[in-house]
Design goal:
By secondary structure, the protein is α/β, with parallel strands linked by helices. The protein is built from 12 helices and 5 strands. The protein has a 5-stranded parallel β-sheet, with helices on both faces. Helix 6 packs parallel to helix 12. The two termini are about 15 Å apart. This is HAD family phosphatase.
Length: about 200
Protein backbone atom coordinates (compact mmCIF):
# COMPACT_ATOMS: atom_id res chain seq x y z
CA UNK A 1 0.00 0.00 0.00
CA UNK A 2 1.39 3.36 -0.98
CA UNK A 3 1.47 5.85 1.87
CA UNK A 4 -0.43 9.09 1.77
CA UNK A 5 -2.13 11.38 4.20
CA UNK A 6 -5.79 10.81 3.33
CA UNK A 7 -8.43 13.50 3.26
CA UNK A 8 -11.26 11.07 4.07
CA UNK A 9 -11.75 7.47 5.17
CA UNK A 10 -14.23 4.81 4.05
CA UNK A 11 -14.29 1.96 6.53
CA UNK A 12 -15.81 -1.49 6.63
CA UNK A 13 -17.52 -2.58 9.84
CA UNK A 14 -17.30 -6.32 10.38
CA UNK A 15 -13.70 -7.46 10.61
CA UNK A 16 -12.35 -3.91 11.00
CA UNK A 17 -14.21 -1.92 13.63
CA UNK A 18 -16.56 -4.80 14.39
CA UNK A 19 -15.30 -7.95 16.08
CA UNK A 20 -16.02 -11.37 14.59
CA UNK A 21 -18.51 -13.58 16.45
CA UNK A 22 -17.09 -15.96 19.02
CA UNK A 23 -17.64 -19.72 18.99
CA UNK A 24 -19.94 -19.24 21.96
CA UNK A 25 -22.08 -16.83 19.92
CA UNK A 26 -22.41 -19.32 17.08
CA UNK A 27 -23.32 -21.98 19.63
CA UNK A 28 -25.96 -19.67 21.05
CA UNK A 29 -27.39 -19.03 17.58
CA UNK A 30 -27.51 -22.79 17.00
CA UNK A 31 -29.42 -23.25 20.24
CA UNK A 32 -31.73 -20.34 19.42
CA UNK A 33 -32.46 -21.95 16.06
CA UNK A 34 -33.43 -25.14 17.88
CA UNK A 35 -30.68 -27.19 16.28
CA UNK A 36 -28.56 -29.76 18.16
CA UNK A 37 -25.34 -28.42 19.65
CA UNK A 38 -23.20 -30.54 17.32
CA UNK A 39 -24.82 -28.94 14.25
CA UNK A 40 -23.17 -25.52 14.52
CA UNK A 41 -21.03 -26.03 11.41
CA UNK A 42 -24.13 -26.95 9.41
CA UNK A 43 -25.94 -23.89 10.75
CA UNK A 44 -23.03 -21.67 9.71
CA UNK A 45 -23.14 -23.08 6.19
CA UNK A 46 -26.91 -22.59 5.94
CA UNK A 47 -26.57 -19.07 7.38
CA UNK A 48 -23.95 -17.96 4.85
CA UNK A 49 -25.60 -19.70 1.90
CA UNK A 50 -28.71 -17.58 2.48
CA UNK A 51 -27.00 -14.36 3.54
CA UNK A 52 -26.17 -12.42 0.37
CA UNK A 53 -29.75 -11.55 -0.67
CA UNK A 54 -30.55 -10.70 2.96
CA UNK A 55 -27.59 -8.33 3.16
CA UNK A 56 -28.70 -6.81 -0.15
CA UNK A 57 -32.19 -6.14 1.17
CA UNK A 58 -33.71 -8.45 -1.44
CA UNK A 59 -35.45 -10.68 1.14
CA UNK A 60 -37.00 -10.08 4.54
CA UNK A 61 -35.65 -11.44 7.79
CA UNK A 62 -38.49 -13.98 7.81
CA UNK A 63 -37.50 -15.16 4.33
CA UNK A 64 -33.84 -15.31 5.33
CA UNK A 65 -34.44 -17.44 8.40
CA UNK A 66 -36.94 -19.66 6.61
CA UNK A 67 -34.33 -20.37 3.94
CA UNK A 68 -31.49 -20.87 6.44
CA UNK A 69 -33.45 -23.13 8.79
CA UNK A 70 -35.61 -24.92 6.26
CA UNK A 71 -38.79 -23.99 8.14
CA UNK A 72 -40.66 -20.77 8.76
CA UNK A 73 -40.11 -19.44 12.31
CA UNK A 74 -42.99 -18.26 14.47
CA UNK A 75 -43.12 -14.50 15.17
CA UNK A 76 -41.63 -15.03 18.63
CA UNK A 77 -38.90 -17.32 17.29
CA UNK A 78 -38.11 -14.79 14.57
CA UNK A 79 -37.62 -12.08 17.19
CA UNK A 80 -35.23 -14.35 19.10
CA UNK A 81 -33.25 -15.22 15.97
CA UNK A 82 -33.03 -11.57 14.93
CA UNK A 83 -31.78 -10.53 18.38
CA UNK A 84 -29.15 -13.29 18.47
CA UNK A 85 -27.97 -12.37 14.98
CA UNK A 86 -27.65 -8.66 15.80
CA UNK A 87 -25.75 -9.43 19.02
CA UNK A 88 -23.18 -11.38 17.01
CA UNK A 89 -22.26 -8.45 14.78
CA UNK A 90 -22.36 -5.34 16.99
CA UNK A 91 -19.31 -5.72 19.25
CA UNK A 92 -16.48 -3.31 18.53
CA UNK A 93 -12.68 -3.35 18.81
CA UNK A 94 -11.61 -0.71 21.35
CA UNK A 95 -8.21 -0.34 19.67
CA UNK A 96 -9.81 0.60 16.35
CA UNK A 97 -12.28 2.90 18.07
CA UNK A 98 -9.37 4.74 19.66
CA UNK A 99 -7.77 5.25 16.24
CA UNK A 100 -11.05 6.50 14.78
CA UNK A 101 -11.51 8.98 17.61
CA UNK A 102 -8.11 10.43 16.70
CA UNK A 103 -9.12 10.55 13.04
CA UNK A 104 -12.27 12.41 13.98
CA UNK A 105 -10.32 14.86 16.13
CA UNK A 106 -8.08 15.53 13.11
CA UNK A 107 -11.18 16.56 11.17
CA UNK A 108 -11.21 13.83 8.52
CA UNK A 109 -14.60 12.71 7.19
CA UNK A 110 -15.41 9.10 8.15
CA UNK A 111 -17.91 7.01 6.19
CA UNK A 112 -18.97 3.50 7.13
CA UNK A 113 -19.56 1.10 4.21
CA UNK A 114 -20.98 -2.21 5.37
CA UNK A 115 -22.74 -5.24 3.96
CA UNK A 116 -25.57 -5.40 6.51
CA UNK A 117 -29.26 -6.36 6.45
CA UNK A 118 -31.88 -3.88 7.61
CA UNK A 119 -32.10 -4.99 11.28
CA UNK A 120 -28.33 -4.82 11.72
CA UNK A 121 -28.06 -1.48 9.90
CA UNK A 122 -30.68 -0.02 12.22
CA UNK A 123 -28.87 -1.37 15.27
CA UNK A 124 -25.52 0.05 14.16
CA UNK A 125 -27.06 3.44 13.44
CA UNK A 126 -28.38 3.49 16.99
CA UNK A 127 -24.93 3.20 18.60
CA UNK A 128 -23.11 6.10 20.23
CA UNK A 129 -19.92 5.50 18.21
CA UNK A 130 -21.85 5.61 14.93
CA UNK A 131 -23.45 8.94 15.80
CA UNK A 132 -20.30 10.49 17.22
CA UNK A 133 -17.65 9.29 14.78
CA UNK A 134 -19.13 8.84 11.32
CA UNK A 135 -20.37 11.51 8.95
CA UNK A 136 -22.45 8.92 7.12
CA UNK A 137 -23.11 5.17 7.01
CA UNK A 138 -23.87 3.32 3.79
CA UNK A 139 -25.45 -0.12 4.20
CA UNK A 140 -25.99 -2.74 1.53
CA UNK A 141 -29.62 -3.44 2.41
CA UNK A 142 -30.54 0.22 1.96
CA UNK A 143 -28.71 0.38 -1.36
CA UNK A 144 -30.04 -2.91 -2.68
CA UNK A 145 -26.53 -4.15 -3.47
CA UNK A 146 -23.41 -5.39 -1.68
CA UNK A 147 -19.69 -4.86 -1.85
CA UNK A 148 -17.76 -5.46 -4.00
CA UNK A 149 -20.29 -3.90 -6.40
CA UNK A 150 -18.64 -0.61 -7.48
CA UNK A 151 -21.94 1.26 -7.10
CA UNK A 152 -21.77 0.75 -3.32
CA UNK A 153 -18.35 2.40 -3.22
CA UNK A 154 -19.59 5.28 -5.33
CA UNK A 155 -22.26 6.00 -2.74
CA UNK A 156 -19.66 6.04 0.02
CA UNK A 157 -17.32 8.24 -2.01
CA UNK A 158 -20.10 10.73 -2.63
CA UNK A 159 -20.70 10.87 1.11
CA UNK A 160 -17.06 11.82 1.74
CA UNK A 161 -17.18 14.75 -0.69
CA UNK A 162 -13.60 13.86 -1.57
CA UNK A 163 -11.85 12.72 -4.76
CA UNK A 164 -11.11 8.96 -4.78
CA UNK A 165 -7.35 9.44 -4.85
CA UNK A 166 -7.57 11.26 -1.50
CA UNK A 167 -9.62 8.52 0.19
CA UNK A 168 -8.32 5.61 2.23
CA UNK A 169 -10.52 2.53 2.08
CA UNK A 170 -10.17 -0.04 4.88
CA UNK A 171 -11.60 -3.56 4.70
CA UNK A 172 -10.68 -7.05 5.89
CA UNK A 173 -11.50 -8.66 2.51
CA UNK A 174 -9.06 -8.60 -0.38
CA UNK A 175 -11.79 -8.58 -3.05
CA UNK A 176 -13.36 -5.49 -1.50
CA UNK A 177 -9.97 -3.77 -1.39
CA UNK A 178 -9.35 -4.64 -5.04
CA UNK A 179 -12.54 -2.87 -6.14
CA UNK A 180 -11.60 0.21 -4.11
CA UNK A 181 -8.24 0.37 -5.89
CA UNK A 182 -9.94 -0.01 -9.28
CA UNK A 183 -11.98 3.08 -8.42
CA UNK A 184 -8.86 5.09 -7.59
CA UNK A 185 -8.82 4.82 -3.81
CA UNK A 186 -5.90 3.70 -1.70
CA UNK A 187 -6.87 0.50 0.11
CA UNK A 188 -5.63 -1.02 3.35
CA UNK A 189 -6.31 -4.72 3.80
CA UNK A 190 -6.98 -4.81 7.54
CA UNK A 191 -5.69 -7.88 9.34
CA UNK A 192 -6.31 -6.80 12.92
CA UNK A 193 -3.33 -4.49 13.43
CA UNK A 194 -4.66 -1.21 14.81
CA UNK A 195 -1.14 0.25 14.80
CA UNK A 196 -0.89 -0.27 11.04
CA UNK A 197 -4.26 1.45 10.68
CA UNK A 198 -3.09 4.43 12.74
CA UNK A 199 0.06 4.70 10.63
CA UNK A 200 -1.92 4.62 7.39
CA UNK A 201 -4.14 7.39 8.74
CA UNK A 202 -1.23 9.46 10.09
CA UNK A 203 -2.76 9.68 13.58
Amino acid sequence: MKHLTPSAVVLDFNGVLGLQPTDAMWANLTATAGWPADQTDYLKAAFWNARDPYDAGAITDREFWTTALGAEPTPRHLDELRAADIAMWTRTDDRVLDVLHRVREAGLPLVLLSNAPHPLADALDDTVWRRNLFNEAVYSARLGLCKPDPAAYQQALAATGTAPERVLFVDDRLDNCATARELGMTALHFTGDATELATALSV
